Each structure stands twice: as structure tokens, then as C-alpha cells.
Amino acid sequence: MNEQQLIKSAIAGNEQAIVKLLESYEEGLYKIAFAYLNNEHDAVDAIQEMTYRCLKKIHTVKQPEYFQTWLIRILINICLDMKNKQARYELKEEIEIPNDAAHPLELADVIAKLPVEQQELIYLRYSKDLKMKEIAEIQSVSEGTIKSRLHHKLRKLRSILAERGER
Fold this sequence. Notes:
single chain; mainly alpha; Rna Polymerase Sigma Factor, Chain: A; Arc Repressor Mutant, subunit A
């Protein structure tokens, strides 16, 4: 049975088909969750919640070809919810980064300082290696908007890194 037939069977309520699909997407979904949450335990929790929501709402998928996109969107929403809940309980402190070369600034640290929406775009494009069209579908905007946003975010990252390098 090919993937599209498996998806159609899953949408029709075949639980074995759902399990096979989730197992086939498991590694990629875990990587997305871990990229957002930076914690193995939280990433596994997010995957479990996504699985629950998938089982509960799979009958709502209208176009089988967008099943994986639908799963990713669910997972991203769960991760964002988890990050927002964590942010409410964490005490935020500004940490000064030393100017000497003994403490290099890593790209991941700079990305982590960006707003969540900007992090999402960068992670989807470069960690998940999704095409612009797929990201546009996930975020429900045009492909041109994604290209423009990504261009601006990368320019912003370059300027932050250049700024840090000059100090």
C-alpha cells in the first residue's frame, strides 16, 4: 500500500494505517519538536499530544496530500503552546555576553533570541529542510511572503552576528 492509500485509509478510520503513518514520520516530527523545545522530555510530550490530537481529529483532513503538513502544523502549535506556558513560569534575566574571544556566540543562541514566529520560519527552512511552498502552506500565507520574511530574518541574523563580531 503506497503512502496516499495509507493516508486515505487512516482518514477513513483505520487505526493501523494511522500508526504506520505516524511511525514513518516520527523522526522528522521529533526533530521539529526538539528544535522548538530544546528538551528531549518536552519534545516527546509534544509528540504524544500530537498523536492524541491526530487520532481525535484525523477525520477532519480534507486533502490527503497535505496530511504531513497537517501533522506538522499541529505539532508546531503544541510546541508554541508549551513554550508560552514555560515562559509564564520562568524568570527572565538578561545575560551579558562577554566581549572576549574565549566565549564565542553560537548561531543557535542568536536564533533563540528571535521572536518565536521568526524562529519557526528558520527552523522549518533549515532544520526541517522544507521548501518555501510547504512552509507557506503550514503558515497559511503566500510563498512570496515566506521568501520575503526569510530574507529579512536572515539579514537580521547576519547583522546581529556582525555586531557581535565587531565588539
